[in-house]
Each structure stands twice: as C-alpha cells, then as structure tokens.
C-alpha cells in the first residue's frame, strides 16, 4: 500500500552537474556526433540564421539515422518568465487536404533549437542529464523513482481539449525503454492521472513532487549563452533543457525529429 504522507514532502534534490554543451563548427560532423553521444547535447556554430540551416544541421549531425522530420516552428517571447526543465514531446495530427498529417510525435528523440534573436537581457539556457537525475533518485528519493518507472500516466491529458490532439489517452510511464534498449526519460507538464485511476490522489501528489524536485535543481545549474545562428542539438530522451527569464524579445526556431533509434 502506498503512503500519501511520504509523497507530500519531497527530499532535497540530488546534486547533479548540469550539462554545458561543447561548441563545434557544424562542418565538423564527426566531432559533433561524438559530443552529442557523450553529453547528450552539442552546440553547432557557423550556420546561417535560417530555417533551412536546421534541416542541414540535422542531416549532418544524425546522417542516415534520420527517419522523420516534423515542421519547424518559431517561438517568440517578450519579457517572459523562465521556462522550466523539460523534454520536447507532443502528439498532434492535423487534416491537410483530407490527408492526416503528423505535426508532432510523442517519441521525438532529438530536438534542434536555433537562436534567431537574442533577448535584451537574460534568457540564458540550462540543461541537465535526466539519466543522471533518475539514477540519483535511487539514493535520494526511491519513492519518486518507483513512481517514474512504475506508474502509467496520461502524458497529455492536461491538454485534452486542444484541437488536433488525439482523443485517445497517451498512456506511458515517465521512464521507459525502446525496443533497441534506449532509455526514455520524459518531462512534460501535460501529464495527469489516468481516467478513474483508483490511485489518482497519489499520482497527483507524485506529479507535484516530480515538479518540485526538478524545479529545485534549476538555480544551481550552470548557464550557457547561445549567440545568433547557434543551433543547440539535444538527445531528447536523455537531456532536459530550459531557459531563464528575459527582458525584450527573444526568438528561436525549433525542429523535432525521430531517428532509427526512436521508439
């Protein structure tokens, strides 16, 4: 039997080094791939500040492993608050001329983010190795580890009314594995308990505990600053990313994709 009292007071978060991606010219493909494999993230330099550059960077960095690219999107924020650590994922299908067309996929395993327009101040990026976070929970918070690895949730139920989001719940655990053995560590603010889950109260408490524990990591993480045109490439199954609050206008382009290693 689960104890609700153990879910209300999260312990101190594990002490983890943040991920500071190495910077390398986009033309040095082998070095970029090695850094991405080692750290789960890399910053590519030397690209033009264009949407086409994202596609070229994806091809150069991931090569023949590429399987599906999703439409790039532009995100502009003005005098905005922080964006907490997260992993990109969504489940969005639209009707384009009578043909179902997927715009986002729950199992996007890589994301590329190009810095289009820097903020006047603030807006620095930060990232963390989610594998290290999960492994650290074995000693710091085994109850949360048990929840993330053993409890099904509806990943996007918080956004159930959004047009284009499938009505069928996307049932998954926060930590899972692909058929080839890659570990997935999800981080989304759309997760809710399954419909009529008898354990709903505990699930809600643990989702809140997950949020609090992750948010507590952020102040101590090292920051890194992208310059105009830089492309941050992330292993979306392994690394969570976020950014600080900023003043002025800040714009990025985002490209999500799936490779042959994706679920």
Describe the model.
Residues 1-26 are annotated as: Disordered. The chain is α+β, with helices and mostly antiparallel strands and 263 residues long. The protein has one domain: Clavaminate synthase-like (Double-stranded beta-helix). The chain has helices spanning 29-39, 51-62, 130-140, 142-150, 200-217, and strands at 22-25, 41-45, 66-69, 73-78, 83-86, 92-96, 99-104, 110-117, 121-122, 125-129, 153-154, 171-172, 175-177, 183-185, 231-235, 239-243, 246-247, 249-259. The strands form six sheets. Strands 1, 2, 3, 4, 8, 15 and 18 form a seven-stranded mixed β-sheet that branches. α3 (130-140) crosses α4 (142-150). The radius of gyration is 18 Å and the shape is globular.
